[in-house]
Amino acid sequence: MNKLYIGNLGENVSPLDLESLFKDSKIPFSGQFLVKTGYAFVDCPDESWAMKAIEALSGKVELHGKLIEVEHSVPKRQRECQRNAALLHSDPLVWKKAIAIFKGLGHFVQKLEEAL
Fold first, then answer.
1. Terminus-to-terminus CA distance in the chain, angstroms?
2. Torsion, Cα of 85, 86, 92, 93 (10° steps)
3. β-pairing, 30-36 with 39-43?
4. Which residue, of 16, 22, 34, 60, has the greatest Cβ tally within 10 A?
5. Are 15 and 32 in contact (CB under 8 A)?
6. DSSP codes joined into one string, the chain
7. What angle do CA 24, 13, 41 make, to 5 degrees?
8. Orientation of helix 92-101 relative to helix 76-90, angle to 10°
9. Which residues does the UniProt record annotate as the domain RRM (predicted)?
10. Does 98 have pLDDT greater than 90?
11. pLDDT digit string (tens) for 27-77?
12. CA distance 104 to 13
């Protein structure tokens, strides 16, 4: 995954600020920075450059007085699935209720019980 999320940005951060930061850090990027209020996205040429950007910049570099966060961009739908999965795994009672609700589905419930 080569798309990066850059977070904890000040309101006045511009694409030029981010371009300068990446160029000064000698980290190549593809295309333009998509800047929103408080965060931005950018593509790196490949996975190794994306990892280097994360390692070099995340939590280590200030931009307009704020320490930036850099991580792999995760699509919204995937973030929601991960959050829901984390909720299910964190509460055994939720699992028991889910099993009770889906008892009629046989094979599915058997696999679910085995996963517990």
1. 31
2. -70
3. antiparallel
4. 22
5. yes
6. --EEEEES--TT--HHHHHHHHHHTT---EEEEEEETTEEEEE-SSHHHHHHHHHHHTTT-EETTEE-EEEE---HHHHHHHHHHHHHHH-HHHHHHHHHHTGGGTHHHHHHHHH-
7. 75
8. 100
9. 2-75
10. no
11. 999 999 999 999 999 999 999 999 999 999 999 999 999 999 999 998 767
12. 54
With 0.85 as the threshold, say if the pTM is over it: no
Residues in the chain: 116
Domains annotated for the chain, with CATH where assigned, are 3-72 (3.30.70.330), 76-115 (no CATH)
